[in-house]
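Supplementary notes (optional reading)

For those who missed the lab, this is the record we used. Protein: IucA/IucC family siderophore biosynthesis protein. Length: 549 residues.
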Amino acid sequence: MNGDAARNADAASNGVADPADRRDGPDTAGAWSGGWRPGEAETATALLNCLVRELTEPRADGASGHRLTGTGRTLTVGAGRWPQPPLAVDGVAVRGFEALVALAEEEARARTGVDNPTLGAEIRDSRDVVAAVLGARQAAAARDEKPVDDLYLRSEQALVAGHRYHPAPKTRGGGAPESWLPYAAEAGARYPLTLLGVREDLLGGEGTTGAIDALWGDAAPSGYRVLPAHPWQLALLRDHPTLAPDALGALGDGRLRVLGRTEELAYATSSLRTVYLPDADLSLKFSLEVRVTNDVRRLWLRDLRWLAPVDELLASLPIAAQLLADQGYRTLAGQGEHGWEAYAVLQREGFAHRVRPGLTPLLAAGVSEGFAGNPLDGLTADQALAWWCRYVELLAPPALDALRDHGVVLECHLQNVLVAVDAQGRPGQVLFRDHEGVKLTTDRHAALLARFGPEVPTPGVSPAKGRDRLLYCLVVNNLSEVAGAITARHPALAEDLWPAARRLLARHADLLDVPHIPGKTNLLLRWLDADGGDSTYTPLPNPLSTARS
């Protein structure tokens, strides 16, 4: 397979998707009626998820509802895959979005003893982003614009609601929609990249980036190398007092030149700063000077310096064929650490040499969320159970083996996993991507982790933390959400999915019998204004432990 042509041919010939089908998965907004503005249903669902997971506990008397641990009050919510109306606290209805935001702030304040004057603005910004995306999608439908034919890209661009367990999953730093909407994956964005020319002696980086030269190297004049740039990042940098090209003096003295725009269109993917070029079968990951969920999305030097060592280690593993390699990066040197990060672009391997013939890669997060052509749609209950079992056995054993046998913690959450399906939509392969989040256990990789000296941050974690991180990504973030998508379609399977998974993973009994697994506390993380790398967790019942075959 190479690029989108083969994928589209498969989709067109076997009926996996109808490009005119505009379904976008579960109707999140269906239960939210009566005074809720566009975008508020999706944002409120995520906020309620955080409240229930992080700031409640079961009531001691076993009664229905959740005890809010900050104030001791009782929260009741409607049933369903995710919390929804009717909402009440101590029997008094919570009416409207602002009342829900106020409830979250009050409970977080009572729980932590500290205040946060900015999170409410992030939540509202996330709401406004969702509203703008929904408006853009509705406008496209009114113009009778068809969704992108490529099923892979459609799955990447399906995440209108974003992270379902983050209080502000769609925040874009408070910018006006016209500043970011042209680059929003959820709105189907595709756009040319900006090409910069960097004087050869100021081109930094490491690893393999030859695909960039193959595409655009001829655009660089003699003595220069081409450096693609995300147009949104360049717009953000224009307002930066020290990193903008003019502020660096780079444009004026010829160190950096603007060469023009690419003829090829780059398609925005779910991470926003990563784009895919279908004809070239190439992914590029950029820095973005904007907070998305928990972090400003730069390619940080602390991660870039470990790119090559981690990639070399991963290439030596038995599961190397299932990993999309982060092959290398290039950037503007000579402007300090901040300039090095701000202008960096990472080259990621495409699908041609990884995806088996006849299979179409899909983003697991898109499968969970829903999109036109989702392989979960239209399955019978028996087919859905078979789909689940195949997905589990393709996804979980390689990730668990990597930890147990090699001390490698794959960040196998929904946005870093691709499931490749056959002509009938059945899973045939799972791929893992984005090595920035890979961790190495200190007991197995002490020598490698010491490579740059004791003062340099490393991707090392203790074996216990490595296990917790893997279980969160694999079970809580990934399998639980896919199970939720299946049971939303087939409620009768709720009692069957986890026992089936337990049988498939019997050789990993040491993990199956852990009574609790960690759930990331994104609301508390943002409330305490902690760095995304300082994540905290709350214990959740392990569905693999409680399942009985």
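If you only remember one thing from this example: The first strand starts at residue 56 and ends at 58.
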